[in-house]
From TrEMBL, chains A, B, C, D, E, F, G, H:
Coiled coil residues, start to end: none
Organism: Alkalispirillum mobile
Domain Isochorismatase-like, chain residue ranges per copy: 63-167
Gene3D superfamilies per record: Isochorismatase-like
Protein's name in the database: Nicotinamidase-related amidase
InterPro entries hit by this protein: Hydrolase_YcaC-like (IPR053152), Isochorismatase-like_dom (IPR000868), Isochorismatase-like_sf (IPR036380), YcaC (IPR048239)
A Pfam family annotated for this UniProt entry: Isochorismatase
SUPFAM superfamilies for the chain: Isochorismatase-like hydrolases (SSF52499)
Length: 209, 209, 209, 209, 209, 209, 209, 209
């Protein structure tokens, strides 16, 4: 606590996005967000990866079994992303291909989201921290069985040094300045924040009125 | 309570849909649903109106002022629907054009959703009941300031004889039998119920596996 | 349930407002609303009484004791209202002066708010119903010890035929049509609904922009 | 709903109190109130029975088994009350001794509290209603497994015509007028409503200051 | 409300149990109960049907599709029950085989539980009421998307005259008197109410101590 | 985090108890606990101070004004405790008499509870930490305006090194071993933990059965 | 954790207040506080800035667009404050004018509040920490989309060393001693804490009684 | 925070499981989980101990008194585990036999669960940390009086360096790779995660379809 604090902030040139186990079966286990909110948060996170051109890695666990396939929207958003279908490792970081894919990005900031929070997110987050990466977890695009389970996972990750963020904070920290692209960011928010869209609807109605 | 109960159930040939004041400003006042859930419920309700070919009536209150314009998705879904921009009546039923539009549908079952629940929904619901209509309120496509306000509105409407339903119950009661169109209803659910979509994703992955 | 439903709706010419025991000590017992929300709801209800020129009656219980005096804002809003400091009757309707004051208004619709809900509101509400009045309770300007207590009180009142409303629904049902006075109603909402004020701020900024 | 409403209100000369199965084992099943709140509500209800001299009947189910004995405070408050240790009837009203004890009171208003709400309270409440009694349930001195279970029980009882009340509403409706005994009622509230006691502490400190 | 109330209570000789669409896919949509609680409630309801020898009818909707098969525990508990795999009717009462199976039981009291509450439970409940049956819904063995959806469904069913109960209330109302079988009922509770089991564990430890 | 952890645990010979501003007016501001729970927690904390013979210091702020007097139960429990009626210092540690009283105890472990949490508790807690004391806050005997306010206060205190505890944890850590006085501790728990009392009631009923 | 703790406490001579993006559009996005509570908290924070004569800086983001203008009450409270309408920087600390304005205050303690918490508050808070400032965030005058988002933001800021406070704690820590101005602080609390006002109303009624 | 982070992760060869005071009486005090959820979590934790062959130690406090005996399922799962019936030590680590049993396992990672969280879990957790063990608490198999009490306990343990986990995270971290035993882990999850079981039911129905 006594060391001078250094604000390790997300930088679009330094960051990679890791989407872990957003599979149709596993997502049906999530109950700490309503299904509609969770879906929106995951798609918004993916849209950020796409919009900011972040190197993105997809990984799944046992797609052929009850866990189900990766949700199709993620496949469609990142058709060329490395896709690691893990043969059994629960912690994605235990999978050599996955770690190699991460290293190949050459980025030192890792943004992680996944299902379920205390396993598929927390485990690789802690492993990556140990390797010296700066780790950011997108809390609202990561889901689990209930609020108690989530809180325990957050405590463990915070204790280790993970930075917990919402997808909106991630987007804003990456974008830095509206002037970099007003329309693009506005579109992103309009698509995924209904009340922001409402503000825009009211505004442009008036503006054109 | 002692009279024999008659199950007045929704019938796609007897029902009309009334969407009241889903305007960009007013919707930003809604806090008894998360914005994402509410948006989905409203769009799902509209999708049902479209899918079941229900005569649909749109109405707004002071579009040119702070209340803001009707959300554009509803305009796009029902380009040819009667559209009553009320000049000042708070209760839509106090507006002759609105009532005439309702009567012109020739339907006796009215499905109502709107913002805010205790005013824009409850007032015309009670007026229509008095006129002898069967009234169904889509509870989750109707929003208001907070849960306490909603509960009071529900109590008042139930007391009067309104039937309270979710959009999903409305859809199912209108459809009656999956065999009428398996694919269409499945698509509707897939679009608006994320976990139902997940079930389908898992199922068809396996089926094609 | 089988009788034709009659929509008994608030009419500004037929309604009187009864404010029961909003005293500084008793209000500190209220925990089913946050203190800030409750204060705003009570003042908004009073502002409606004033704005719509409703005959208003104030009553208190044991002002000189621990219950404390009527909150000063209500006295100031209604300096000429009948003010019944009850010498001991818990149910205001058991007090002859109070009933006489109600009768003197000549109104048949009684709007009641007070502290605490299950006693100071519910008791006179049930008594007035029995006397043939139409009774409307402003649910969010009536407070009590906790949510469980409130729900029991609401159930009992609904069962008897009381109409439960928020102050906003009351205001809208009384006003009927914005054209009766756009500015006045807008001011009322701006004063007591922060997000409505925000809509207006955005709107007029743009309009004058 | 169309019949003239009659306010059947509690009258200390017409009412009897029935305390059903407040046993040490069964109370440990209650989770819709915190244990401290529930204990206070039960003791406050008992204190009302004592204070208003209501004929009171105690009954238990299988005291010698896991359900445990009646909590000692109730025995101490009502040392001479009829005490029906039911040999097996779940619905106390199915026990002839219990019904006889009720009839022996000669009262037509029955106030019921017990554990658990949907069984030990709801069953005799519905039976007594059928026999023509006016039935009042003390909702906050009746506990059950969780809130969902409670709500279902309340719905069923309200539907049948039971009047749901808090112990505080019961006390106030029985007392009618503070002048009947200011000090006695004040003491009752001071003992069981901590914030009312605080009001009194502040008041008398000042008064004697 | 003015008619004399008749307590229509469950009677083991008059009641049949209808379990509607407890399928592995549909259950994964339920979010108004935690998955563990819901599973326990459904199995407890089934155990009651078995224990009280209630004629039981199983029905499913599209078992071969995403809805998934009936959960195996129910099949195992009722191997000889009529099993109606509906080819498409959403409301089970629209299926002739189902209604015939109900009629074949010769019972006039129908206990219904299912997934989801506002459709698979509410629709046949309302249809059966209209046919003159007494209808009891096991609220905690019936699940849906969220609490708001549940509340709307409960309101609609209560309004129609359905009696809402928990599985525990159902069990107790059917059993009537512990003396009918102390051990059997105790075992049922021990299996499905963990804290009741704890009471028994403590009691028998002491008894044998 | 890398230093070896030292478990600074409460020791009855090293600890003093500081009760800050439990005044009748201030307590009525507390809404993050129900009034009944909060009262019980404060009295249980005081009972521990008494039972473990902890040097105890009472302090108040402006007793003669709206804040009201110290609640009488605390005065009665600690008739001989130093009693610092602060003339104006908000942080009790800014009051020389208070600090002197603390120093006079010769203890290095300070247990603090008070109203409101983020001021009357947090301020002296942080001041004492700075002076090198080990500080323990009794979280459930410290109350404030709402849960959000409480959480911010807890975060700030935890960050500084305060140990957050419930009164029950405090009691157990001080007692160390039931054999030090089974009956005394049992009585303490029986008085303040209703369900523990129930366990004892069931146990001794059986034991004497 | 092992370093001696230093209580960095707010000092009115060392502190500046930064109000970030309290704009009419952005505030309508806030859902982790009720609108009424949030408005009161923001105005109370501003009133503290005014009352304690803190150098105050106002900043906004895109006032001319959907975000809307600064709420007028803030402009009115601080007519002469530096007002930085940022042309695009999301993190106010990225704006040179803003940082210069902060430096010009010559203060080392920065109190920050704004909308939304995880961006407009957290970003400059982390930047200022890095620059060596002591940073205090007014948690209840900072709002965001929902509770989950807020918690993540709080975790991130606490981890970095931000001190989280309510506006009431800020006011008390700045004031230090009631004797500095009893009336002024009392007025501040009376205006923004309804139950404190009630205490004062009761007190002065009695005092003058 | 500035030291390089080391991910101390659970390793099945390094870990022992300590189950503290899961006794029938004490468990009835738990109200921060529903009884059904808590039972499932405890049994799942025990099943993990068994499945991963972790050296397991059982301990109880005053089994012969009101606390009641260890729940029988734990005895049955670990018939040969060291079983320390503590004669009075509240902190199990104060009991020499218990510490010796822990040491005898030769493990350096201790997984602890128990009742109640802030005492029976937190005390030995802090003691073991001080002795240099890595400590993991199974948060959802540890219960207490209410959520506030739990949160305080979690804060204290996190502050000290305890790693907070759910039973599911524990299982996954121990298992590392599904390929170690797909069927075994699948069975464990199927038994204790109802929705995972549902996924498997749907999957295998289809697979065999």
């Amino acid at each position: 606590m006594s060391d001078p604090f250094q604000y390790r902030r997300l930088n679009r040139d330094d960051a990679a996005l890791l989407l872990v186990d957003h599979q149709s079966g596993l997502i049906s286990l999530v109950q700490d967000f309503s299904p509609g909110e969770f879906k929106n948060n995951v798609l918004a996170t993916a849209a950020c990866g796409d919009y900011f051109n972040l190197p993105t890695i997809l990984t799944t666990s046992f797609e052929d079994g009850p866990n189900g396939p990766l949700v199709p929207e993620l496949k469609e958003t990142f058709p060329n992303a490395p896709y690691i279908a893990r043969p059994g490792n629960i912690n994605a970081w235990d999978n050599e291909d996955f770690v190699n894919a991460v290293k190949a990005t050459g980025k030192k900031q890792l943004i992680i989201a996944g299902v379920v929070t205390e396993v598929c997110v927390a485990f690789p987050a802690l492993s990556a921290l140990e390797e010296g990466y700066d780790v950011f977890v997108v809390t609202d695009a990561s889901g689990t069985f209930n609020e108690v389970t989530r809180e325990a996972a957050w405590h463990r990750m915070q204790q280790a040094g993970v930075q917990l963020m919402s997808w909106f904070a991630m987007a804003c920290e990456l974008h830095r300045d509206w002037r970099n692209d007003i329309e693009g960011l506005g579109q992103l928010f309009s698509n995924h924040i209904p009340n922001y869209r409402n503000l825009m609807t009211s505004y442009f109605a008036k503006a054109s009125g």
